[in-house]
Each structure stands twice: as structure tokens, then as C-alpha cells.
Amino acid sequence: MKKLLRATIAGIALFTLSVAPSETVDAATKKFKNCTELNKTYKGGVAKTKTTKNKGGKTKYKPYVSATLYEANKSKDRDKDFIACER
Questions:
Q1: pTM across the whole model
Q2: Are strands 64-65 and 46-47 parallel, antiparallel or unpaired?
Q3: CB atoms closer than 10 angstroms to residue 78
Q4: CA angle 6-22-40, nearest 5°?
Q5: Among 81, 76, 83, which Cα is nearest to 62's?
Q6: Closest CA relative to residue 86, chosen from 69, 61, 67, 65
Q7: Longest CA–CA separation in the chain, Å
Q8: What are the φ/ψ torsions at residue 34 (nearest 5 degrees)?
Q9: CA–CA distance, 86 with 61 (Å, rounded to integer)
Q10: How many Cβ atoms are within 10 Å of 32's Cβ, its own excluded?
């Protein structure tokens, strides 16, 4: 009887852990006030797609890729290369 009870509790615990939602950065898409604030979180800026190329020349950091985050901060993409606040 104890083995059955332990197995049931373990099964419920595994099911609960596997169903729990995992929070991602994209789930909490944030609109930043300016590029300084955005670059504190994403040093290389935010790119719309992973195939996006920088028009402005060399950059120090690789941009974080997220279409939803880019759309929220699209106004900070001055050179319209689909990378907001690249550094």
C-alpha cells in the first residue's frame, strides 16, 4: 500500500512539474523608453530575424533575435535595418 501511495505522489509531482508554464523573454515583451535602457538588457540590440544583416557597419555585440520584441521597439531602429539599438 505504501509503494502505491509513493508512486501516485511521485506521478502527480512529475505531471505538475512538466505542465507548469515556462516563462520566456518573449512572453513578457517589453517596450523600452530608449536605446540605453534596451541595451542594458540586450547589449547587441534586438533583431527581427536571425538572417538580418547590419547596414551600419561593425558592431561589438550580436543582437538578440525576437520578432515580437523588435515590433514593440521598432521606433528605435533609426537606420531601418531591422535591428533596434545595435551596438
A1: 0.66
A2: parallel
A3: 11
A4: 140
A5: 83
A6: 61
A7: 69
A8: -155, 175
A9: 8
A10: 20
